[in-house]
Design goal:
Elements (H helix, E strand, L loop, with lengths): L1 H15 L2 H26 L6 H18 L3 H9 L7 H13 L3 H24 L6 H13 L2 H7 L5 H18 L5 H12 L6 H15 L3 H9 L1 H4 L5 H27 L2 H14 L4 E2 L3 H15 L4 H10 L5 H4 L3 H17 L3 E2 L8 H18 L4 H9 L6 H8 L8 H11 L6 E2 L9 H7 L7 E2 L6 H7 L2 E7 L13 H14 L3 E9 L4 E8 L12
Helix pairs in contact: 2-6, 3-4, 3-5, 3-24, 5-6, 6-7, 6-8, 6-9, 7-20, 9-10, 10-14, 11-19, 14-15, 16-17, 17-20, 19-20
Length: 543
């Protein structure tokens, strides 16, 4: 009976809401459902880390161990030695491990939480664009973000991309919310937000800092025109220029202090060299030969990766060439400046190309596309539903791709099962060794998964096999089927060299095969070997 009454009261309250409030409530419920599906399928049921994820997770694990041991000297050391990928993400990750424990899921949960915050700030920033249509622009931009393959992918992976995009978005939101404030404190906060980019990813800092400098000094030209006439207007007329210059000086000074602190605290030469290498020499990605393919790479990337439908992706790219939208929604001029600054720098100055390089402007792309949509709605007094249906009809052809984003094909077996088999095969008080480098099973993944093992875990493909053999009691190995998915994950020949090494040891009677299990879904066989005790009357038996 109480439940029936509660439902009755909810229905009554719902009926009293306005049409807009009802629509917003339905949208919030839909967002909650979509996020729940992403969390279950991408976080809780996710496979083992990729190699890149494991590298970032290891950094967070170092700091987590330092915090739990209350060893703040080690914490500072482990912070400073993260030079290629600075430490901000690992700081947040260590806090996540403190709250939720160490696991694949908890590491990825940080990215999921960042994704939720990104959706929130997309909506909040969109409200600033228009009093009339801000909420609708926000809902549409959030919808585009919820159906974006690249955003959903990074929402369920332990990587830096989500944090970089969130910092850029929050800094933009703070800028447009406080640009008319007179207190210098707002410009200090903005400078700190932008400066945090250097502690996240060098490439993103290379994009974000110039983008904000361009926006900050965009008014310099018109103001200089006024300055020329100041001698005729009197000293009082110079007040606006001086105040503008004072605020910009505060912003630029604090920005370079925050960013420069990272380089000047220690190892300046090495950090600066890595900064230059990350941008101008090797940033991952692929080399794109030819001027035209290079110019078309990122528009093509947006079409193919930033929306589930190439048609919607094409509309997003088209919106980038509608700058007159900024005359209707004035604050979108900064969005255009940010987007084009990043695209020009990424295209013209970074030698390699990759979709993740421009991920930091993904929220801005969706906001621009939504703004362009409602610009035409308002200008020509069109019906939202009719225009939306007309535009989305071609996107229905890609509906299976959208369903696949939320309900990906899930194999019967995964690499997490292989790791679990290894862990359960022996007792956690003896040292183990493995030399393997697959995409989802490598030294970083093994070290992370066995982080609480009560004995040494030797998983270093750079070490000599004989060194690993002398230091361990048990040995893990993977034998790959010729026909199966596992060979596609091979990154080098370490797994084959390790198997050949253990095979020789088995023939020589130095090891015995303790157990094995075939994972047909992965196309591999996992094996556990045990070193035979060498009885020497002159030496104690270590086993």
């Amino acid at each position: 009976m109480p439940l029936t009454m509660a439902v009755y009261h909810l229905i009554i309250h719902y009926m009293r809401l306005t049409s807009f409030q009802k629509g917003l409530l339905v949208a919030l419920l839909a967002v909650f459902v979509f996020l729940s599906i992403i969390f279950i399928n991408g976080i809780l049921l996710g496979d083992a880390f990729t190699k890149e994820e494991a590298q970032h997770a290891i950094y967070g694990l170092w700091l987590y161990k330092d915090i739990t041991a209350l060893d703040f000297g080690a914490f500072w050391y482990d912070t400073q030695r993260q030079m290629f990928w600075p430490f901000l993400h690992s700081w947040f990750l260590s806090l996540t491990f403190l709250l939720f424990g160490v696991s694949f899921a908890s590491a990825r949960f940080l990215s999921f939480l960042i994704y939720i915050l990104t959706l929130f700030f997309i909506y909040q920033a969109s409200l600033q664009l228009s009093r009339r249509s801000g909420s609708l622009i926000g809902l549409m931009a959030v919808g585009l973000a919820l159906s974006s393959p690249i955003m959903i992918s990074y929402a369920t992976r332990s990587t830096l991309e989500g944090l970089g995009a969130l910092i850029f978005l929050v800094a933009y939101y703070f800028y447009i919310s406080t640009e008319d404030r007179k207190s210098p404190a707002y410009y200090v906060i903005l400078a700190v937000l932008v400066g945090l980019s250097i502690y996240t990813n060098y490439l993103y800092a290379y994009f974000m800092i110039p983008a904000f400098l361009v926006v900050s000094f965009a008014k310099l030209g018109p103001i200089l025109v006024d300055v020329i006439a100041l001698n005729k207007k009197g000293e009082r007329s110079a007040y606006a220029f001086l105040w503008w210059a004072y605020r910009k000086l505060i912003f630029v000074t604090v920005l370079f202090v925050v960013a420069g602190t990272w380089f000047f605290t220690s190892a300046f030469a090495r950090k600066f060299l890595l900064f230059l290498q990350a941008i101008f020499r090797y940033s991952g990605g692929e080399a794109v030969p030819g001027v035209v393919p290079s110019l078309l790479y990122y528009p093509r990337t947006i079409i193919e990766n930033f929306s589930f439908s190439p048609w919607i992706g094409l509309l997003i790219v088209a919106a980038l060439f509608l700058p007159f939208t900024a005359f209707h929604y004035w604050k979108t001029n900064k969005l255009y400046t940010f987007i084009w600054t990043v695209l020009i720098l990424a295209t013209m100055t970074v030698p390699t190309k990759a979709p993740q390089f421009i991920y930091i402007i993904a929220p801005f792309l969706f906001m621009i596309a939504a703004s362009a949509f409602f610009y035409f709605i308002e200008k020509y007094d069109l019906k939202v539903k009719r225009v939306a249906i007309a535009l989305l009809l071609p996107a229905l052809l890609s509906l299976p791709a959208l369903i696949g984003l939320y309900f990906p094909a899930r194999p019967a077996e995964n690499m997490t099962g292989v790791l679990r088999y290894f862990r359960q095969s022996i007792l956690p008080r003896h040292p183990v060794a493995i030399s393997v480098n697959l995409q989802r099973l490598n030294s970083e993944v093994v070290n992370f998964y066995f982080w609480d093992w009560n004995a040494p875990v030797l998983a270093d493909t750079a070490a000599q096999e004989e060194q690993l053999f002398q230091s361990a009691r048990y040995f893990f190995a993977l034998e790959l089927d010729e026909c199966g998915p596992a060979p596609l994950e091979v990154l080098d020949d370490s797994v084959f060299r390790w198997n050949a090494f253990l095979s020789d040891k088995l023939k020589n009677g130095e090891v015995s095969e303790l157990s094995m299990r075939h994972f047909a879904g992965l196309g591999l066989t996992a094996k556990v070997y045990e070193k035979k005790a060498q009885l020497d009357p002159q030496r104690p038996n270590l086993f």
